[in-house]
Structures are given as C-alpha cells and as structure tokens.
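Office hours follow-up: a student asked to see two folded examples consecutively, so here they are.
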Amino acid sequence: MRYCINCCIHLLPNDLHRQCFRCRGPDHNNQKCPVCRGENKIPLYTDRKQMKWLAVLEVRTDHCESWNGFFCLRKGKLCSLMFGLIIMTLVMVSYMLTGAKHGLLLIPSPFHYGAFASNPSLMDNESLSDMKDYYQPSKMNISYVKDYPSIKLIIDTITSKIEFITRQRPDLEELRKQEPHMFSVIPNKFLPNSKNPCWYEEYRGNTTTDPYATNSYALYSKRFRIIFDYLRKVFWNHLYHYKDKHYRLRCLPHFYIIGQPKCGTTDLYDRLRLHPDVRFSAIKEPHWWTRKRFGIIRLRDGFHDRYPVEDYLDLFDLAAHQIQSVLQSEAVKERGKRSNIIIGEASASTMWDNNAWIFFYDNSTEGEPPFLIQDFIHAFQPNAKLIIMLRDPVERLYSDYLYFASANKSAEDFHEKVAESLQLFEGCVLDFSLRACVYNNTLNNAMPVRLQVGLYVVYLLDWLTVFNKDQILVLRLEDHASNMRYTMHMVFQFLDLGPLSEKQEALITKSPASNTRRPEDRSLGPMLPTTKAILRDFYRPFNTKLAQVLFDDAFLWKRT
C-alpha cells in the first residue's frame, strides 16, 4: 500500500493522486517532484501487521508548512469538528436553561440574590430544616452592587416583613424529655448558706481515679490541660467526708455575661473578675450551652462527641473549692452566715447562638426552634442574673468582620459582603418569619458577615419570655468607654456586691481596655460611607424597637 506523506490519503496502485492540491499543481510533474519521487522523507515502519489507520508513519525533514494545507482537511475531521461544536452548544444551552430554573446563573436579578431567593415551589408548611438541601450559599461576586438606591429597595422589603411576635414558652416536661441526663444531674434546690447556686454531689471514685480523665475540655484543648493538672492535685483535699462517703461541691454560675460579641464583654469580664467576691469559670468562654453540649467545636468542622453537663460543672471547681472553704469556716458554721462569693460565666454566644437546634430538636411547622438556650437555663436557675453589653450594631458588624475575616480585608470587601448578606436575608424573610430566619443555621452560615448578631431586640424579647426584666442588665459599650466607673457601679449594684475600698475600685476602673482593635486592622480605616448608610437603614427598625423595650433612646445610636 502507498500513502501520500502530505495528506495521508491511501493511494490505489493506478491512482494519479490528482485530488491532492499539495502534491499536484498546474505544472506538476510526477517524475520531477521530489515529494512524489520520495526524496526528503524518512520512512518509519512499525511492524509488518496491517493497520487500519496508517500503515507507515513518515517524519518530515522539511517543517515548512504551506497555507495550502488548510485545504487538505479530511471530511471526517471536518465532520468531527462540527459535531463537537454542536455538542458544546447543546451543553451550554442546557446549563443556561437549568441554571435559570434553579436560580444558579451568574446573571442575578436586581433585587433577589443568592441562595434564599423566594421560591414558590416551597409549601407554606414546609419546615426550615428542609432548606438545608434545597438552598446552597451563593458564591457570586457582586462587587458591582454599590448603588445605594438599589440596596435600599432590598432593605425596604426586609423592613416590610419585620413582625415582632411573642414566643410561646415550652413546658418544663417537654424540656425534661429533651435533656433527661441534665435534669438528673442538676438538682432543683441549692445550699441555703451560699449566695451562689451550689450543692453537694456524692463522689464514687477512689484515690487512684482521675476525676477529670474524660473531661472533653481537657481532652480536646491543650491550653486547658494545665488547669486540669492543677485541679487533679488539689481535688482530694476539697472532698467533704460524711458517714464514710465522699462528697464534692458542685456549682453553677450565679450570673451570665451572655452577649454580644465585639461589644466589650472581654473588658467587662477582666474588670469584674478583679472584685474580691467574684469568681469565673476556669475558661473564659466555655460556649457550653450553645455549642459544646451539642458536640460543636466549630460548626464548619462537623460534630464531635457531646460534652456532658459534668464537663461543664468541672470548670467551676476552682471557685467551688473557695466557696467550700468559706462554708466550712467557723464563722459560717456558728454564726449562721453564708458565703457571698458568686461565680460568673462569660460566653458571648449565649444570647444569640441557637444554630444547633435544627440538628437535635424536632422541627416546628413554622420553621422556628421549639427550644432555646434560655429555656434550659431558666429551668435550672430561675433566679439567674444576666448581663448584656451592646454597641452600635453598625460598628459592631465592622469590628466583627475585621476580627474574624482571615484574608483580603478591606472596606470594599466588607461592602460587598454586607450587600450579599442583605440579599440572602431578604430571600429568607420573604418565605419565613423573622425569628425563623434569625435562628436559621443555613442562612447564618451562608451570610458572609453576621448581620443577625446585631438584631439585639429579637434575642432580648425571647429572653424576656422566660426571665423577668429586673434579672437582665443591658449596658452600652459607648457608655462603658466614656464613663467606666459608672457602668461598673451599675454592675456591682445589679449583682448585689459589697462595697470596695478606693484602692480596689481604682484597680478595677483604671486598668487598660481589653481586646481592643489590632494595629493591622486599624490601618484599614473605617467602612465606606455608603456601607454605613446601608447598615443604618437596615438596623434602624430593630434599634427603634429596642429603645422602646428598654425605655432608653440611647439605644437608637443616633449620635455614633
């Protein structure tokens, strides 16, 4: 068999090869043409077997290509190219049609963005937990959405859907069914001679038993192991012996600093712990009520083993040892006095973070959580005291972004994340209640910035459904920064703490502020004026309601 080296066409024995324009021109001579004669070519034979495609491969020594080669495309190659183009076109058309149906195209509507756009296919009684599979976080870049009037329309839609509806409290028996072990450990009565809620619990271990061997805080965090190493050493010295049995003093906090993040809770904690009658948990923010008891360390990392209530109580053993020393003193035993030491706990997630409910509690038809953190705290401690530190939600959000964002931080990036979060929030409130959206884990994880944390009044109203108003002290960071002595006196009075000497008071009030903005974050400057105007419009109706609930117009944050 013979093959033309230029066009690879199989030549019959008598074929003059007239169809190849490369080999045959107007004045072509087969005898004189070096190509047809076989010069300047090196044949390369593979084997003796017959091949279906090419029997011989020839390597050219002359690499110069002529434009005439374009006319030598085989019909098969041309058909393959056309077929490939048709298939590609069909795939693109299919993607566009499918994307338009599910709202996944990168050509957004002017007003409904992201994963929570209104969807008529959802039934009115569909639960919010079902949205986990249907909705996915939007990843589009919407840096072009910097037009204030356009975003103002989104905010107007959200505002029109705001409705503050009183929540119904669950029954105590319903709470017992959800957390039977917790109710079996914590009693319903505490020691009368201690201001702090404490009780004695029988310890069944022996001298060789490590009381903290299974504590999850010690197992999962290296920085807590030093604390537990010390507790192991002093544990047996603080057991109470009675009728051949060993008892340990267990305590819960007398008060909780429940929120909000980036509102000065760390500074309040650092100052309050300097008071001689105040003790705190061994760890500043245990996050047990909101996260650890569900097995959440970081929600994006999935679930771990749930931290039992005993692990949480272990965190107060240091304070319990001091309270026990007072209880066993002669002054308390003989004169009937009581211990005035109180314990505090300062997890800034306690007020607002109920994201785990959807994974552990039965869903409700309205998409709202049937049980909240405060329901369980109140069930065990109806007399607990709660401290809330707030700040202008606009500034709080920017501070939150600067603190938690890992890379590419800028005022422009913050603006884009705010715009996308607003669009996601709008999509949710179009289909569900305000409370359902605020406590929606899927939405909260999808939003690039935590808009929901600044909706203070939504959370406060839910806490007021179980606790009396005189059990909650609400402070402003702006007041704390301008007149620290005044705010600390309010806290001391609220907790019914004893008087301080001038030296003790000076130590508490004149210490430098804690957890201030990092120097590298300060260099980024303030947020864009447009972003601030957008956020002011978004938070305004919530601030107005908060000021009404607290009877204080300072919570309108008009001067900040």
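And the second, which I mentioned at the end of office hours:
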Amino acid sequence: QIRYSIPEELTRGAFVGNIAKDLGTDVGKLAAANLQVLSDSDSQYFSVNVNTGVIMVSERIDREQLCGQNPRCFLHLKLAIENPVEFYRIEVEILDINDNSPEFPSDEVSLRIYELASLGARFPIQPAQDLDVGTNTLQTYHLSANENFNLNVKARTDGGKFPELVLERALDRELRAFHHLVLTAEDGGSPPKSSKTHITIQVLDANDNHPVFDRPSYGARLVENSPLGTLVVKLNATDVDEGPNGDIRYSLSSHNSDALRQIFAIDEQTGEIRVQGNLDFEEATVYEIEVEAKDMGSPTMEEHCSVVVEITDVNDNAPEVILTSFSSSLSEDALPGTVVAVIHVKDRDSGDQGKVQCHVSPDLPFQLRKDYEHQYSLLTRTRLDRELVAYYNVTISASDLGSPPLSRHTILPITLADVNDNAPQFEQASYEVLVAENNPVGSVLVTVSAVDPDSEQNSRLSYSILRAGGTEPSLDPTRYLSIHPTIGQISAKLPFDYEQTTYLQFHVEVSDGGSPALRNRTLVHVFIADQNDNAPRVHFPRAGEDSATQLRISPSTAPLALITKVVAIDADSGRNAWLSYHLMEATEPGLFSVALRSGEIRTTRALQETDASAHELVVVVRDAGEPPLSTAVTLVVLVEERGPEALLGSEAQAADGGSLPTITIYLIASLVLISSVSLVGLAVLGM
C-alpha cells in the first residue's frame, strides 16, 4: 500500500506521486505490464502516465464534498499489473485547505427579550458552520461592542462552538427599544476567514411605567347653561410603555359624586371632557373633577389629576315673587294705605343680575311700598267701590338689572268684599198699568223690578205694597192686589169693576237684606180699562118687563112731528157707552123713523085714514162695544082724536125731554175723561 497526501482543490494534471519510483520498478516494465488504475469511487479523480509512472489529478477534488467534517479524508486507488498479475493499493489523503469561511444560517438574527429579563440571562445564537476542518474550521466568535450584552462561546465535546448572548446590564425599553449587534465568526486558517450576522434585539415592553398627565391639574371656565356636548378640556396623558401597556383609558374617578357624573362625561379614548348635563351657577360655581388614566397592562397602572371648572354666571334666572302674606278678599270700604299683601322677591343670579325691582300698573288703585331690600308691601292707593269694580287682577312685575333684564309677572286675584252701601233702585220711578176690568183673579198686572249693586245678602230684595193712611177701604190697594215678595210680581186678588173703580195709586217698597236694611219706593198707577159688560138701559119711556108703552097721537099729526123720544144710558164708558137707536119693527114701516143718535121718534109723513089706528114700534138701543150689547123697547102708538091724551103724551115727553141735556152732558164728559186717561196711559207705556 502506497500513501500520498495532497491538498484539495489542486488543478487538473497536478502531480500526486511517481508510482514507478515508489514501487521500485522500471518505467518500461510498467508500460509492458499493461498498468491500469481502478478507483473505489464513481469519479476518476486520478490518472497514471504509463510512460512516466506519474499519478496526476484528473478532476477537481473537494475534500468537504468527499468527506464532510471527517478530520481525515482518503481516496483509494487500485493498480492492476499483468504478467504476472499483481494489485497495489494506493491511499491518497486529501488535505484540507482553508477554502471555506464560517457561515451563519442567516445574515439577520432577531431576538425578542423581555425588558425585565434577569441579569445573567443567556440567549443562544445559532452557530456558524465552517466546512473546513482542523485549524481551518471555526475557531472563535467576536461580538460588537455594546452596553448590555456579553458573548459567551460554549464548546461541545465534539469541538463545536456555540455562541450565547449574556445579559450583563438591565434593559429599559423606554430608553432603547432595539439593540443592534454584530456577531463575527472566525476560523483558524491563515489567513483566517470570517463571516458576520446582524443581531436585532427587540426589547419587549413590561408595564413598568404608569401614565403621566402633561400637567398635574387642569382648569377651565364655562358659562352656565352651556349647550350639551360643549368641550370643557382635553386631557393628555402619556405612557412610555408600548402596546396595551401604553394604551391609556380615561375615566372619572370614583371620588366624584353622582351629581357631578350627571353633568360631565369623559371620552375614554381621547380624554375629552364634555358637558352632558345642566350647568347652573346658582347650584355650584366651581366643579372639581377627579380624573384617572389607566393603561391596559397587567397589572394596570394608573395616574390621577384634577380638573377645576369655574362657572360664569349669566342672567338666566327670572326674579321670584314669594307671597309672605296675602288676603285675596278685601272689604270695599278699606281705607287708602291698607296692606293687602307682603311680597318677598329674590333672584338666584349674582351681582346686578340678582337685584330686583318691582312695580304695579299705575292704572290700578294699588301701589307698592318698598319696606327693605327684597320686601315690598302692596297697599290700597285710593277708595274702592265693589259696585264699580268687584275684582282685580293685580300684576306684580319683578325685573332684575341684568342685560337683557329678565322679569316675572305674578298675578294676585283680589276680590272686594261687599258692604251694604247701596240702596235698591227701581228700574222706573213710577209704573203705570192699564188693566181691563173683569180681569181674572191671580193674573199678573205688572212686575216692578229693582236692582241693588251690592252682592249676596246685601242684594237680596224684598217687595211690599204700602197702604196709605186714611185711604178709603174701597180704594185700599191691598184689597185688590198682592205682590210676590222676591220677584215683584203684582197680581190681582179680585177682579176690577170699572163702574166702581177706575184708578188706583199706591207705593211699592223694596228693601235689601243688609244690616241695617236699605229701602226705596216707587209709585204705581193702575188704570182700569172699561169692558163692554153693561147693556144699555132705557130710562124713558118706562115700561114694565115684557110690556109695551102706549102713546097717543092725533090723526092730524104733521109730518116730522116729534111724537116721543127714547132715552137710554149705558153704565160703560167710551165706545162701550156710545148708543145708537134703531127701529127694528113697525106696523107701518114707512110711517115712523128713529133718530140714530138722539132716539127721537118722528112721523115721516102725514097720517092717512087708511093707516092703522094702532102702531107697534120696536126700538132697539145698541152700544158700540165689541161685541155690541143692546136693549129693545116696545112702543104702541094709538091714533085717536083725543087731544088731551095726546097732549098728555106730549107733555110727558116734553117733561122727560127737559132732562136730556143733563144726561147728554154727563155722557160726553165721561167719554172725554176716559179717553184722556187712556191716551195718557198709552203714552206712558210707550215711553
């Protein structure tokens, strides 16, 4: 066995050894012996020149490829010679050269180390690989200069070397979040070869810092009644930690009252404090809000600060009017200066905005007197009269001195209590009533009405008919009339008879219910109107019931001669007493006539022998009433030559005729009187 040693990576044709020399054989014999080189590997790395016996490199030899990390690397050859057959074993040791640099698995290495990692903590780094062996392989590591880490190289029994980073100084992510190191691997070749990897160390955050506000306290100023959503202040807290450890949430501290929480709200993300309730200067002039900022680390860390919010007053409160004393009922005879109400005023605003002035309308009989600050008295200013104004709504106007001023109006209802200071008054000074005779009993003739401007009991009226002293019983009004005591209706107790009583006059008195009572009177005139209730009554010629009156006339009575006169009267008056005479029946219709108004019976022609000797005349006396009433009288006229009887009839007629003027005058006077009274009564009623 022949052994050669050659370095790897020799060029093709490089000399390995002289087999002829080393075998001690002549070169010529080798060529004659048909020398052959056989290799154990698939590649023919060597060849032999049979002419020279020199073994040469025929292919590139890479020791690392052939033998890897084996410390020694050999290639084996066999030489075959014929005549005689002989085999020679040749062993070629391939020597390592420093043709490989140490190589890290990656040019970049990333480590993540908790910033609270303990000192002395070790952090292995994947080692570099060097395909060379022996002294040419990896020999050492070098770490770039830094403040926190040292390098420790750990050697294994197989010769491997593993680098470790050792924490020598505590990390602080907030000071330095990343560390950049360079690790160099170097072999033992000559010259040595090396490679580098860049180590990036990310310091992982630990929640070791609490949030910090940019100021220990905040201040803000708002006007009261600021709209909802108004920004009060924006807080700013920072946490140098990162991730959840530096993620800050804002909240109102539990130290705040529930009332304050209803007024202010904070956005947990932005730290903005906004108004969410009503700001009222009169309830609080300053609010101190306690705020906390928490990070999201585990465990959480927090920080506190205070926000002082000053509220500026605005004139947003109208004055208040408080009745300290008030009587809604006031006697109408109260003297001027009488105290009606005591009023207290206040305004919850401050400064001039809280100063209040009060006044009432000058048109009212009341005035305000300022007793002292914030108190007024409402007084009567003039005399009062309930009958003119029974009820007052007194408006108390209270205004502050703000700009613009605010005011409040309070209405005090004041009712005047009645005093019986007014006597009843009839609606008419006198009443005139025209009543038809024969009126039904109980019929209402007239209603007298009085008014009393007083109220309640003072205005409750009572009516009565007064009887005048010395009045004849036949003319006593209480005999014929009665009056309803409360409504004043005068009713008939008896029917009137015009033929007995044509006129009544009396007083009606009214009294109120006051104490003492006040009274008044009115005069009532009652005129009785005639009704056609009496038929005419014949006074001449007189005749008995169902009998006729006989008259005698001479046959020689001239035409138009007055033979007699029917005289009748009617107890009625006016048209009811206007009488007319009518010849209703006659034996000889054309012989006699009756004067319509006077009742004179005359011949219309001369008597003739052919005329009857006795004539029956039926004369009807009728009044002008509606319906008319009448009376009939029967006359028998006898035609005879007996002159004295005829004259007797004439004398009787003349005697009765002498009284006609008196009766006529009476009738005319009665008619004129009744007509005049009727006209006056109608005129008064028309007024």
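Two things to take away from it. Helices lie at 19-23, 27-32, 63-67, 258-263, 477-480, 643-658, 660-686. Residues 212-312 form a domain with the Immunoglobulin-like fold (CATH 2.60.40.60).
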